[in-house]
Automatic annotation (TrEMBL):
PANTHER family: AMINO ACID ABC TRANSPORTER ATP-BINDING PROTEIN, CONSERVED COMPONENT OF ABC TRANSPORTER FOR NATURAL AMINO ACIDS-RELATED. GO terms for molecular function: ATP binding; ATP hydrolysis activity; L-isoleucine transmembrane transporter activity; L-phenylalanine transmembrane transporter activity; L-valine transmembrane transporter activity. GO terms for cellular component: plasma membrane. GO terms for biological process: D-alanine transmembrane transport; L-alanine transport; L-isoleucine import across plasma membrane; L-valine import across plasma membrane. Residues 7-254 form the ABC transporter domain. Keywords: ATP-binding, Nucleotide-binding, Transport. Belongs to the ABC transporter superfamily. SUPFAM superfamilies: P-loop containing nucleoside triphosphate hydrolases. SMART domains: AAA (SM00382). It comes from Methylocella silvestris (strain DSM 15510 / CIP 108128 / LMG 27833 / NCIMB 13906 / BL2). This is ABC transporter related. Pfam families: ABC_tran (PF00005), BCA_ABC_TP_C (PF12399).
Amino acid sequence: MSAAPLLNIKGLTLRYGGLAAVEDLDLIVAEGALDALIGPNGAGKTSLFNLISGLTRQDDGEIWLGGARIDRLSPSQRARRGLARTFQNLRLFTETTAIENVLVGMHLHVGGSLLEILTRFGRFRQAERAAVDAARELLAFVGLSSVEYAPAGSLSYGDQRRLEIARALAAKPKLLLLDEPAAGMNPAETAALRLLLEKLRAQKISMLLVEHDMSLVMRLCDKITVLNFGRKIAEGPPDAVRANPAVIEAYLGVKGAAHFRGDAA
Ligand SMILES: Nc1ncnc2c1ncn2[C@@H]1O[C@H](COP(=O)(O)OP(=O)(O)OP(=O)(O)O)[C@@H](O)[C@H]1O
């Protein structure tokens, strides 16, 4: 039995001149799913994340979230509808503390501008106490309790990635888009990330992740969609995708079929 679609993408197309970065793409993320989007460099993964989150506008097609069409909304309107994302290149406020970074992610719910939250100003003071408690809980959830008041930029790379996830979670998203969450992580950090994503799945947060770490993707995800040159070339559970000849061929020039065994390299 398949769950209702939370994200429903229909015929999505984005062109840069003569090049289709994303072409006639259909994609569904079901409620509660933990799905992955993979493909060789330049396949269109980041372009698709930018389209979903509203940083880029499509040339064709539709994006629906929770039964409402969102593809004409601004990024912040989409965020208010329950969409959150992390970025391939971290986008934390490095000079401010970990907890303040989470509080910034919460501003959709607490009310008030970034500046007002950071300066603890005016009528937001009352809401602030509850927000700080919630931010603490989120930091504990991702395993960062011990560094609440450390500047974000002083944290290890793996901790900064987890802080980005905490900040994204602060907006209470229905769907979390994770752009290469394991990039640059050591094996211990990747193992901790995997546990974190499993905890999020247990909390019924739907996730779509772009990830090059095949071991992580193969072990963790319900469904994998494979892009190549902007088009979907395969989709299905990990076992089916890793055995798919079109997928192996798409990666052959990159790292070869061994890429898909899901073994730690
Ligand atoms: N702003 C842009 N202008 C022109 N072409 C672009 C632009 N952004 C992306 N592209 C092209 O669109 C295609 C898809 O790029 P995209 O970055 O989405 O791929 P990707 O799958 O995320 O790659 P990677 O794994 O390297 O991050 C590529 O051919 C890329 O060169």
